[in-house]
């Protein structure tokens, strides 16, 4: 039995006040989704862009799954960490002027870049996969707004570990093996992750 639960949270763009229902994600589901989209594309002027948004804390396997989905569905993948990785020099500069807010400012900037890139791709008629923790209500609301304004179908794939010991092992193994240039803003220990979980729970309301 897998130690990772992958769930689909699917919503129509106009249902922006409530969280959608949950379904178990299987590759059969993905293939059925792809076939349905292919049939829609055969009809002129009736193709609806799809946003697949990953959701989950670090170490839950969402990036691995996002890469697999992007490869299978041939969708552009927009990874928030790719943007955040590029802000190291800005972080170092801001630490001298605004040490208390540097990380939060650049994290929000990374999300803003992701939303803008996704908006551009969707306006071109492309479906996209967005990889981010999506742990704050403000980010979820922004995603729902994006889908609504673009009249796009939105599917949220939530990755949740059912085995905490395996989650911890996976996280700390990744922290020990990652290159510093790509992991400087990610939790590398269980204690760091626990602090993130506390902050996330307080900001989720």
From TrEMBL:
Protein name stated in the entry: Uncharacterized protein
Superkingdom of origin organism: Eukaryota
Organism listed in the record: Pistacia atlantica
